[in-house]
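Board notes (copied after class):
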Amino acid sequence: MAQKKSYSRYFIILQEDEKGYSLGVDKSSSGYVKMEVKDTKCKISYYVQNIKKESAPYYMILICNKKDTNSIIKIGEMNIDEYGRADICYEYPVNNISNSGLGIDKVSGAAIVKFIDSNIISVMSGFSTTDIPRWKGFDIANNKVKEAKIKPQKKDNRSIFDEYEEKIEEVKNSKKVQSDDNIKKNKCNIELSLKEENLEEKSLKEENLKEEDLKEKIRKDKSQEFTKNKDNNLFIDDSIKNKPQIDNKSCKENYEYPLGEDGKYFKNIAKDLEIISDFADQIKRCKWYKVEIENIDDMKNTCDYDKYMILYNPMNSYYNYIKKYGHYLLGYKCDELGSVKYIVYGIPGEKSKEDQPYGGKSGFVTWVPTKSEKQGYWLMFYDYKTSTVVLPVK
C-alpha cells in the first residue's frame, strides 16, 4: 500500500500596525502570509502591497507563541519593488524554520517589521487567534546553521498571486468540524485571520503532481462541492442545484432565515443593518445585509466585540476595495433546515481584475451582477465552523 502524504495550508492576513509606511494616506498597506506543509517540508510565502520602499530594510518574521514557546523567527529581508509590492517564497524543514530549531507547529502569527537599535517596529502583523501576545519582547531565535535557500520566483507584469492557485477548492477535514453546541463558545473566534485546510493525498506518484490531478485524489466530501451556473458565472451548492426555483418575492423564507438559536445570534449581529431583498436570487436561502462604511474607523469599532469579529474584522484588509463604494454586503447562507451554513461577504465592483480583491487569492472568486449587469459583487463564502474559506470547483 502506498504511503499517505499529508498536506495543509494556512493563511494569515496582515494588517497595518504603524502609520507612515504605506504609499499614501489613501492607501493602507496590506497582504498575507501563506504557510503550506507537505510531509516533512514547509513553504512560507509572503505577499504585501502598498508599502513604501525605504533605504532601511523591512524584515519578515514569524511569531511563535504555542506549546510554551515565546520566540521570534527572523525569516529575512523583504525587498519592495517600485510599485510597493513584495512577493517571495521560502522552503524549510517542517521542524526547523529558518534554521532556528523551531517547528511550524509553534507559529501563531507573522509580521513585517523594522529593527531600530534594539526596538522592533511592527509595520504589519497578523495572528491566528484573537489572543495577541506581547510578542515584541520575545527573544529572536538564533540561526543554528546556514541561511535557508530562497526559492526564486518567476516575475513578470502580473503578480504571482494572479496566477497561483487559480483552480483551488476547499476540502474539509471532518475532524475539525465543531458541533453546533459549541458555536456560542467559539463565536468570538470567527475570523479570517487564519484559514486552514487539511488534506489527505492518496498514493501520489510525483512531487510535482498537477493540481488538477491532486484535487481529484483528495476530493472526499461531494456534498460540499460547488458547481458553475453558466448563465451568470455564479457558483451554487450542489445540494440545492436541482431544487425547484422559488420566487423570493412571493415567499417570506429569506426574511425568516436564519432559524434556530444560532440564527437568533446571527440575526442579532445584523439587527441594525439594511436588509437587501433583490440580490442574487440564484443563491437560495441566503439573507443579505448592507454594511455601510464611511471611513476606516467604522471598521475599527470594537464596542460590540461579537459584531466586530463578524462584520468588520474580516473586512479590515479590504478597505481599499470597499471605500470607493462606501459599503459591502454580509450574507447568511443557510442549509435546508434554516441553519447558517456559510457567512458570505460581498465587495462591490465590476467583473475585472482591478476590482477583484487580491486577484481572488483570498477567496473572492465568485462575481454576481446586480440588475445593472455591469456592476456587481465579488463574493467570498466562509465556513465559520471550520474557519475555512469555501472556494468553488471550476
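Comment from the instructor: The helical segments are 183-186, 211-218, 253-256, 260-269, 305-312, 319-322. Confidence is low (pLDDT under 50) at residues 145-252.
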